[in-house]
Amino acid sequence: MKKLKIIISGGGTGGHIFPALSIAGEIKDRMPETEILFVGALGKMEMQRVPAAGYKIVGLPVIGMPRKISLNMIIFILKLFKSMRKAGKVIKTFRPDIVVGVGGFASGPVLKMAEKKNIPTVLQEQNSYAGVTNKLLARKVKKICVAYSGMEKYFPKEKLVLTGNPVRKQLLDNIDKKEALKNYGLDEEKPVLLILGGSQGARTINESVMAHLDKIDNEGVQIIWQTGSFYYKEMMHRLEGKCPKLLKPYEFFTHMELAYKTADLVISRSGAGTISELCLLGKSSILVPSPNVAENHQTKNAMALAEKHASIMVKDSEAIGILIPEALKLIKDREKLKIMSENSKKLAKPYAAAEIVDVILETIKHR
């Protein structure tokens, strides 16, 4: 087989970037000679994360479409036009065998221009709903890899392949729990609560922690807490002189595989990528869906786990009052945690990246 050239496009959040990197890693494992180029949106986190993982990336000036008609709509149209032109040049220069879209601002222009040049395209939809861009792109893509059943309400049924969401490969590493605990200076005898808010952080989850510092101080539960880059300085300032001994705040976890390994219980938002990771690792969780997402898809994600008794869902509007007390109570119920963990593991799709790469290679073969 000749050396393949593949473009992977999308990003904006970790939920798009980590699956994209996982797909790229699977391709490289199978065919190390493959040339992979990422295309992202200028100013978004993929412009740092992708090069850090060892891949080349090109940035487009594309931005999200404004929800209301305003001056921003003109800016959006101008940047979209520039992005389409730049995407066309990238495709003409790189000459990919296939273009894979993982969602995010950049994937629209790149897949659209690829289709114009008769280059096959594949979509990877992480969520239980489909956004406007992906619904439009679906008309011409060859295959759509999805993580949830029932997606035929958004996409042509004959194009769907149920693969699950790929996760960061290092999460599957065989890690010694004692070493993971040691890494964070944690005691082996005390339970560990891991609190996540995504790479930038979640205001409601952070405020839930701040509202219950006294309770945290008295429960004998160790907490490692990712505040997110957006809130870290503020949280550290507010914690000055009153941070409980067993509370360890971090801006961001560089090694998520170690953080997950320590955890007896996880508090998190319920983005598709996080859900896939929790299930793969069989983690008990309390999920707080973000209310600021399209079509309320995080609530649907959380309910999918809660209905299978793999998680507990707490509404964002109720979290500050009840989230931490609920977590501190649950983490001491070893039997319930065990049942939740087992149910979570049953929902995992551990071979998602491999199945998506199978779809990509099959699509190239039938070009």
| Number of discrete helical segments | 15
Low-confidence stretches: none
At the first level of CATH, what is the class of the largest domain? Alpha Beta
Helix content: 40-55%
**What is the domain tally?**
2
Shape: globular
Number of strands: 13
Task: Explain this structure.
The chain is of the alpha/beta class and 367 residues long. The chain has helices at 14-30, 46-52, 71-94, 107-116, 132-137, 177-183, 203-210, 213-218, 232-239, 256-262, 272-281, 297-306, 316-330, 334-346, 352-365, and strands spanning 5-9, 35-41, 56-60, 98-101, 121-125, 143-146, 160-162, 192-195, 222-226, 247-250, 265-268, 285-287, 311-313. The strands form two sheets. Strands 3-2-1-4-5-6-7 form a seven-stranded parallel β-sheet, with helices on both faces. A six-stranded parallel β-sheet has the order 10-9-8-11-12-13, with helices on both faces. The chain is globular.
